[in-house]
Fold:
Amino acid sequence: MELVTWLRSEWDRVLGWTAIAAAVIALLLGYQGVSDAHFVAKELAYIISGGIGGLLLVAVGATLLISADLHDEWRKLDRIEDALRRPAGSPSGEQP
Structure:
């Protein structure tokens, strides 16, 4: 049950790293196809599917990872802001 909770809270990081792993696979498969092709017309299909598809997956993965980091920073800033709003002598959960 702990794994499910972790996956729910970190879904964007998991999906980001999964997209980057898929991009590496797409780029490797595209390179394999281009290296075996002898005609430029056959290479274009591999360049488009493997190269451009791989770059798109890297962009999606990086965007998800940056978004996850921004969410962490926003949570930290919210905690700091809440701590600054509390009076100096009050317990942590109470506000006047």
In short: The mean pLDDT is 87. The radius of gyration is 23 Å.
